[in-house]
Design a protein that fits this description.
Blueprint: E1 6-12, H1 16-27, E2 34-40, H2 47-52, E3 57-62, H3 69-79, E4 84-87, E5 93-94, H4 98-105, E6 111-124, E7 127-136, E8 157-159, H5 162-166, H6 177-188, E9 191-202, H7 218-228, H8 238-242, H9 245-248, E10 255-256, H10 266-273
Parallel strand pairs: 1-2, 1-4, 2-3, 6-9, 9-10
Antiparallel strand pairs: 4-8, 5-9, 6-7, 6-8
């Protein structure tokens, strides 16, 4: 059996409904030559996702203890067999043509990432529906990215061989593993922003997103700053940072493709039948 072109790596921990919606989003992709590696970080069992979506080439990796998302993501990368890797968080979604678009855009580059819509979801009848949403789209200025990263790892696509040179994601910087990865990649490889909001990034009020708790991130930000010599960096609230003049100046045009309709998973349909 031929190896898949793309390995999609998803770390997960006790977000079964969200993970099922992501599986549904993957089943809708216009390009289907991919494997899905779900790394369960010692949470509730997720085997039912594989049973609900037999059309997807899903493998489930069980962590032996709760090692947190960076370790789980690294485990998924080690198990990947595709020429390319796509990263997605378990509570985020990609739109039907996202994988096809990213594969078209990566020619001549080593890592591509798209714009996103940041969505505050509310749960209704076991399905997430948007309460509000806004576009997150910024020009890729590599120097400015050292001051405020606008790289969103969910939905990014890159060549697996990058890890042969750079190694795995740095667990020592924890919350900032993605910023660190982008900085390391951009120093040695060709990177590109794709001006299409093909990713829905969950920033819900009820979601345990650590971007909302800047005080808990200071220790790891200091490690990142020291590693990359970034100078003094504040741990301000995410939305406060977005209003900084230097960030506002980087706002860019992008194509919005989501029609706002929720992703009703097969798991949700099962629950509604009960």
């Amino acid at each position: 059996m031929a190896e898949p072109l793309v390995s999609i790596v998803i770390p997960t921990y006790n977000r079964l409904l969200q993970l099922a919606e992501l599986a549904d989003a993957l089943s809708r992709q216009s390009f289907q030559d991919f494997e899905v590696i779900i790394v369960n970080d010692f949470g509730e069992k997720v085997d039912g996702i594989k049973e609900l979506y037999p059309n997807l080439n899903i493998s489930i990796v069980e962590m032996e203890q709760n090692s947190k998302h960076v370790h789980a993501r690294n485990k998924g990368v080690l198990d990947a067999s595709g020429e390319f890797i796509m990263l997605i968080d378990d509570d985020d979604l990609i739109l039907p043509k996202h994988l096809e678009t990213m594969l078209a855009e990566i020619h001549g580059y080593d890592l591509v990432y798209s714009d996103v819509e940041i969505v505050n979801f509310r749960m209704e009848n076991h399905v997430r529906v948007p309460a509000d949403r806004f576009l997150f789209a910024y020009d890729m200025d590599l120097q400015a990215m050292r001051r405020f990263s606008t790289f969103v790892s969910s939905g990014c696509l890159y060549r697996r061989e990058i890890h042969q040179t750079l190694g795995l994601f740095d667990t020592d910087v924890y919350n900032y593993w993605d910023w660190d990865f982008f900085l390391r990649v951009s120093e040695q490889y060709r990177v590109k922003r794709v001006p299409i909001a093909g990713v829905l990034y969950d920033f819900s009020d009820t979601n345990n997103n650590q971007s909302k708790v800047p005080s808990s991130r200071r220790f790891y930000l200091d490690k990142l700053v020291e590693k990359h010599n970034l100078g003094d960096r504040p741990t301000e609230n995410f939305f406060t940072l977005l209003n900084q003049p230097e960030v506002v100046r980087r706002k860019a045009e992008s194509q919005i493709v989501w029609d706002g309709q929720p992703f009703v998973s097969k798991l949700t349909l099962q629950l509604l039948e009960k």
